[in-house]
Each structure stands twice: as C-alpha cells, then as structure tokens.
Amino acid sequence: ISPTNVNLMMQAASVAFMKEDYDEMVGICEQALALDDSHAMVHLLYAKAELGMGKLVQGIARLTKAIALDEQLADARLLRGQTLLGMGDAKGALEDADWLMARADDNEDVLLLKARLEAAQGNVDAAIALYGKVTDVNPFQTDAYRERGALRYQQGDKQGAEEDMQKVLELNPQEMADVSGDYSAEGIEHKTRQAYMNLNPFGI
User: Does the reported pTM lie above 0.70?
Assistant: First the structure.
C-alpha cells in the first residue's frame, strides 16, 4: 500500500533485527536509503545489521555517518562507543562516552559504558564509583555487580567482591549451579574466586 514509506521500512527493519535476520535488514535499509540517503535513523539500523553480521569496521563507519547527519542521535553514539570499546579502542570510545555523560549521566547504559572505559584505562576507583551509580539506577543490573566485583577482587577487596557476587547469585539463581556447597559464605567465596580470576571486566 505504501511502498515508499520510509517509516514503515524502518519498522520492518526493526522487526528483522529482533529476528536477527540481518540480510533482510540490509535489504530493507538499502531500499529506504534509495528513497532518502540522508535519513540518520536508517543508517543507524543499517549499522546494527552490519554489526550483527560481524562487520565491525563497516558498522562503525555507518554509525559515524548517522551521527554526521544527526549530531544528537544518542543511540548511534552509544552503539559506536560500545563497539569501539569491544574492539579494544577505549580512546576512540571515550569521545562518545563523554558526549553522552554530558547529556544523560543518569542513563544506565551510558553509565555502564563510562564505567567500563574507566576500568579499561586503569582508573579503578572511578570505575567502581560509576558501577555504583549504575546499580543505583538499576538495582538488577547484574553486569555492573559482576564487573565491579572483579575490580574489587583485583584490588584485594575480598569482602566487597564476595558481596557483589552474592548479589549476582541472588539475581541469577541459575548461576548457583557452579557454586560448591550450600548458599554459604564458603560457597560464595569459591564462586567469587572462580568467576573473577577469568573475567574481563571491560566488556571487551
């Protein structure tokens, strides 16, 4: 009925994203861009498809184009920052994180990105403080407890690390399967040692 409706195409691309059908998503985005190449949100959706396909460099380039078209497109900046950090480029991700922190420093995802960046740069105290802000915003954010606990463990704060791991286990009871013994101090300590010794707290 509306073959040239870009908004409908974006909805269809979003459904394809939920299905993890990235080929379909690319096809829809290319159709939309043939009608309007200056649509920042379409470029963002296209970037999500490329990242889903493992095309990280292309995805970063597409996100950069989306941001060039709409400097206020926070979702594109967040995704670019997360992707750059995942690629090990903490310095590159910092610009997006700082831009987001200046405008949405109470957003869970923004705080988590900034915390991971501080950790990646060795600013452990700053990272721990930011993880605390994440859990203030969302007390059910298990990644924040797990990653903060890893930093505490590395610093020798055994009690703090165990407290964070206990919180993870409370929120994710299925992880109890790997704990030896009952839900006890000994079990938590064992789980803490095993979990934190191999954990990369930076999300990379």
Answer: yes
